[in-house]
Amino acid sequence: MPDAPTDAPPLEKPLLGGRALAQGWCALSALHGRIETHVERALQARHELSVREFSVLNVLSEQHDGPGGHLQMRQLADAVVLSQSATTRLVTRLEDRGLLSRYICPDDRRGIYTNITAAGRELLDQARPTNDAALRDALQDAAARPELAPLVTAVEGLWAPA
Q1: What is the CATH topology of the domain spanning 28-150?
Q2: Which residues contact 111 (CB under 8 A, 6 or more apart)?
């Protein structure tokens, strides 16, 4: 019987099925819920920001297409995983607080851009350490739970230096 070629691709890992998949999903959902609740409390207490508001400001701060960065509303909705109507309500709240602004796209009058303001960037800069500390605390707490520890390890390894 001939040997298998040494350059053959490795066998793919089989997909989880049934109960294992459901348990994994439940653990992932539990980890997300724990983290979001912990971070939400910290951001609300110290900066009067929700996790979603922080996410919107953070996403906009990372755009470099214009002064301060901007996105069309649909792009922002996709980036923060919200419906367009929920994103519009959230942007309106942040705009009312002077943290972002909206303007009509000069090339396409149907498009509306959202842009972070200097006040939004300042609040985001103040809130980032709170967000980071709360995230670390939530992950540390979750790592102590056997059902969540493997997920915490996976999350921590996502952006670790190679």
Answers
A1: Arc Repressor Mutant, subunit A (1.10.10)
A2: 72, 104, 105
